[in-house]
Design goal:
Layout: H1 2-10, H2 16-44, H3 46-49, E1 68-70, E2 73-75, H4 86-122, H5 124-139, H6 142-153, H7 157-163, H8 169-183, H9 187-194, H10 199-210, H11 212-235, H12 247-254, H13 263-293
Antiparallel strand pairs: 1-2
Helix pairs in contact: 2-4, 2-13, 4-5, 4-7, 4-8, 4-10, 4-11, 5-8, 9-10, 11-12, 11-13, 12-13
Length: 294
């Protein structure tokens, strides 16, 4: 029986169990992608999707529990200490939360990819300097460094986007360096060198395009990490400040009322967790697919 199974596998026959597993994986991927698309659409159409004006205060409706109906209407997720509708605040904050995560990740990816590609291709002192910088930064508690920098520079969206890439670029640099060293000795790179292409041309026209799949997976996974970092910094008071809204800031503003109004912190935290989980699951699926293809 085992010989039949082995022969079938060698001949490329997909067994029922494997076929079922692939089908389940595709359904799971579709679910997580659909969930992420919903959040993206909410972020884009936040002004239209919010049932109330997110900054509209109603002191008489303050700290209303979820599913409470007031004179203004139904508050699905309740209200905050100023009577503002929590669902509207979450919807309004989706755009900025996703925007900060995406922009900071792209900046970190560009920095790490350029350093990693240069270090892997040129080697020598370029490699030593680039990797020593990455190792030195990895050795430091970067989240604490980010808190220090934002305390000195001041909490703002611009400063947050400047500081957050420092948390992720060393990961890009190390992985892209290893992939570049693997591709450096391949025939198409040697052919480009034989034709007299410059190092910059080889990097940007041959190496980086062939690393696009790996870079894309790293970007997807890193967006979730950056979003969690933004939430942590905003929670500690050195990130986004009112009147801007992010999910991390909502969690921070609800912290003093956790004992009497749990929904102010728990519900934004659940939304943040769902988005990060969906991003990580999509990235993990594509990482397995990329590994199998490689």
């Amino acid at each position: 029986m085992s010989s039949i199974s082995t022969t079938s596998s060698r001949q490329g026959v997909v067994l029922p169990a494997a076929r079922s597993g692939r089908r389940h994986g595709r359904w799971a991927l579709s679910f997580w992608v659909g969930l992420l698309v919903v959040f993206l659409l909410v972020g884009v159409t936040g002004d239209l999707a919010a049932p109330y004006e997110p900054f509209e205060q109603a002191p008489l409706d303050r700290l209303s529990a979820p599913m409470t109906t007031t004179e203004r209407g139904l508050h699905v997720f309740g209200t905050d200490p100023l009577g503002r509708d929590l669902l509207s605040s979450i919807i309004f904050g989706t755009r900025l939360t996703l925007l900060i995560g995406l922009v900071a990740t792209v900046i970190g990816a560009v920095i790490g990819t350029l350093i990693g590609t240069a270090a892997g291709y040129y080697g020598g002192w370029v490699d030593r300097i680039g990797m020593r910088l990455a190792e030195a930064q990895t050795a430091m508690p970067m989240f604490l460094v980010a808190i220090l920098l934002l305390s000195v520079l001041g909490p703002s969206i611009i400063n947050l986007i400047v500081v957050l890439p420092a948390l992720i670029w060393p990961t890009f640099a190390r992985i892209i360096r290893a992939e570049t060293m693997r591709l450096r000795s391949t025939p198409f790179i040697e052919a480009a060198q034989a034709l007299g292409c410059s190092g910059a041309t080889i990097m940007f026209r041959h190496l980086i395009p062939n690393l696009a799949g790996r870079i894309g997976v790293l970007v997807v996974v890193s967006v979730g990490h950056v979003m969690l970092a933004e939430a942590g910094l905003s929670f500690l008071g050195v990130g986004v400040q009112p009147p801007e809204i992010t999910w991390g800031l909502l969690i921070s503003l609800g912290r003093p009322y956790l004992a009497v109004a749990w929904w102010l912190t728990i519900i934004p935290g659940v939304f943040l967790g769902l988005v990060v989980l969906s991003i990580n699951m999509i990235g993990r699926y594509h990482e397995r697919h990329l590994g199998a293809a490689g």
